[in-house]
Amino acid sequence: MANQRALARLTKSMPDIFPVAVRTRALSSAFVPPMPRLAIDSYWRAHPLRAARLARKLATIGGAPDGWTWQISDKRKNGLPATFRIPPAPYREKTHARGPGFCCVCGQPVYRFGWHADLWDAGRNKNANWHSACVVAWQFWNAPSGQAKLLRRVQGRRCVSTGKRLWKDAEVDHRVPLFRVWSDFRNAPWPALLAYWGLPNLQVINRESHAAKCATEARDRQTARMSELIG
Description:
The protein is mainly alpha-helical. Among the domains are: 1-46, no CATH class; 143-230, no CATH class. It has eight helices and two strands. It has a two-stranded antiparallel sheet.
C-alpha cells in the first residue's frame, strides 16, 4: 500500500521531461521513491562508478580556477582539505567557491532536481550547491571501501596482485598510494588528479597482499623522508 502511494505521488509530480534511465528505474523499483529528486538520488546511488565518471567529466568543462594550486591546511575555515587523502576540490575552497547554483565539486551549474543538464529550460537552481551525481561521486572517492562489493565484481572477483580468487578479507586499495600522489603529482592539472581517487586507481586485493604492499610503501616513504633530511 505504501509503495502504491509513493508510485502515485511520483507519477503526479514527475514532469513530462525527465531522464529516461531514472524514470525507468524509479517506476520499476521495489521501493518507489515518492519524489523526482529522490528518484534521481536513488539512481546515482545505484550507479556510483557512473556518477564518478560524470563528476570528472563535468570538472573538465571548466577546469581549475585561475591561480589555483592543491594545498592542505589544518585550518578548516578556509575550506582547504586537512589531509592529502581528501580529493582536491578547488570549488569547495572559500577563495574559489562559485556560490549558490553551482556545484562545489565540479564547479558547473546545478539545475532542477540536482541534475547536471537543463532539460527543463528553467535555468540554474540557485538553492543548490551539489549535483546529485557529484554527491555520490564525492562519497565514493572519500570512502571507496563502501563499494567493495561492486569493485570486486568489476574486477571479476580476482586479486589484482596475485591473480587468485579474492577472499572474504580482501580490501580496497589505491594502486598509486595517495601520499605519493601528494608528493609526486600534486602539480598535475586538475581535474586529472581526481582519477587517483576513482576507479582508474582503485583495486581490490587480498589482505595478505595488501599488508605486504603497505609495508613496502611505508619503507619507501621512510626512505624518502630520510633523503629529504640528508639533502
